[in-house]
Structures are given as C-alpha cells and as structure tokens.
Amino acid sequence: MVLEKLNALETALANLLEERDSLRRSRAELESQLQRLREEARADSESVRAQAEELAKCQAEYARLQKEQAEVRERVEKILTHIE
C-alpha cells in the first residue's frame, strides 16, 4: 500500500516536473517573441520619426516655393502693369 502511494506520488511529481519544464519553455518562447516585437517596434518608431522629419522638410520646401511663386507673380504683375 505504501509503495503504491509512493509510486503515485512519484508519478504525480514527474508530471509536475514535466509541466514545469513545459512552462519554462513557453516562457522562454514568449520572452523571445517579446524581445523581437520590441525590436520591431523600435525600428518602426525610428522609421516613423525619419518619415516625419522628411515630411517636415518637404512642407518647409513647399512653403518656400509658394512664397517664391507669389513673389514672382507679384513681379510679373508689376512689369505687366508698367508696360501697359
């Protein structure tokens, strides 16, 4: 009777150890996935930052070109007015 209980206890303990090992493997896999996702998020963040900087440059250039266009239009209008 005692041997049967010890065998049952040993089996239960073996099952618990297997489950613990499985949980450790799962945890390691999840940590690996988390690290990969963090790295991807960091790369995406850097990409978005670079795109935002490029957008700001383009907007500044567009504003400069609009101002230049207005100045040229004004000069042309003055010249046409002067010719008439």
List the keywords.
84 residues, mainly alpha, 1 helix, 0% strand, rod-shaped
Architecture overview:
- The protein is mainly alpha-helical.
- It has one helix at 2-83.
- The termini are far apart.
Write the layout of secondary structure elements.
Blueprint lengths: L1 H82 L1
Structure described in brief:
This protein has 84 residues and is mostly helical. The chain contains 1 helix and no strands.
Radius of gyration: 36 Å
H and E order? H
Q: Say how many strands there are.
A: 0
> Can you summarize the main beta sheet?
none
Outline = rod-shaped
Average residue-wise pLDDT: 96
Alpha-beta classification: mainly alpha
Strand content: under 5%
Helical residue percent band: over 70%
Unreliable spans are: none
Distance between the termini: 121 Å
Number of helices: 1
